[in-house]
Amino acid sequence: MNENFTDRLLNAIVFAKAASIEAEVDKLYPESMLIGILIVSGNPVTNALKAHGYDVDALLKKLKSDLRRKEPSMLRADGEKTSFDNLGIDEDLVTIFKNCRGDDPITVSKVFLSIFECCKTLRNRLRELPGEYEGCLQSLAPEIGGKKLTAMDKYVENALKTESLVGTIQVGNRMIDSRIMHGISGCVTEAGELEDAMKRHIFYGKDLDLVNLKEEVGDIMWYLAILTDALGTSFEELADTNIKKLSTRYPEKFTSEKALNRDLHKEREVLEESEKPEALEKKSSDLPDVPLCRLPTRDSELRNSGGCDG
Fold first, then answer.
1. I need a labelling partner for 8 at 20 to 30 A (CA). Which of 45, 70, 194, 209 fits?
2. In the chain, what are the helix, strand and coil shares in percent, each to the nearest 5?
């Protein structure tokens, strides 16, 4: 069952299980898997993190702390204590492995990138530490056929270096993502400054300062960078989805009739379709047999990781 996993990934899974046992939790979590990947010897992920300025020991410390905060249930429903042999699998981790599906072997690099694609909390955790986030992930992308950074990707990477992170905000019994709130509030504020410049030009006869208008547009882009990242998307994805929606509304070109008689249901379908990860579009019966129920259970099952591709 393990033929689709590289030896190095199998070793990382063993370390991940050990991390969950040490933290006294009854499941393998994405945090467990990250710890396992960072511990296993000779892996490209740790090398990439170090090359892009990350303190791997500091990251491990934070991940272990996060894992200990999970529900500390070492007792199964049948009353037996969870052991190395019968750890459960968190649903998020199942999704992460499903996203790594394909004909090629699943490597630690694929799992690492899938974790940060699926888990916003862990993306933010890595961003909190000094280091080049996008550069690190991009350096691993060639191993899985990833795309090169676009100009907008690089802009977002640089913009987020100047972001003020304050975590979540509690409003009553609700937890609000402050990054989403920051992005929305900033866009509204900067749009107001654009409108004020036009108001002064039209009604007060003041010269229109084009340099200032461009500055305000740039400021809006900065807040949009925060917002798109907090929402787990990108400028490219949003642009593509927006054009698909508009193509549904205006198959050939704009007309007033179509603008006034929009098929909102069909447009919503286009938007929702863009939210579906490719790896989850097929029925669960079509998914590959991921060996999550029979992961290596003993240190003796560790294989020699020399010569593996990741």
1. 70
2. 60, 5, 35
Q: Are 63 and 31 in contact (CB under 8 A)?
A: yes
Predicted model pTM: 0.51
Q: Which residues are paired to 256 by β-bridges?
A: none
Predicted confidence (pLDDT) at residue 258 exceeds the cutoff of 50: yes
Compute the average pLDDT of residues 281-310: 36
Helices (H), 161-294: 178-203, 210-230, 235-249, 256-260, 264-273
CB 31 within 8 A of CB 25: no
Q: Which residues are CB-contacts of 78 (< 8 A; sequence separation ≥ 6)?
A: none
Q: Helix or strand or coil: residue 229?
A: helix
Whole-number Å distance between alpha carbons of 59 and 278? 30
In this predicted model, what pLDDT tens digit does every residue of 130-183 receive, in sequence order?
888 777 877 776 554 445 567 887 788 788 888 887 777 788 888 888 888 999
The verdict on domain 7-149 having CATH code 1.10.1780.10 is: yes
pLDDT digits (tens, 9 = 90+) for 14-63: 888 888 888 888 888 888 998 988 888 777 888 888 888 888 898 898 88
Query: 252: burial class by Cβ within 10 Å (0-12, 13-18, 19+)?
Result: exposed
Of 283, 271, 193, give the one whose Cα is nearest residue 231: 271
Would you say 79 and 32 are in contact if contact means Cβ atoms under 8 Å apart?
Answer: no
In the chain, where the domains are located: 7-149, 169-278
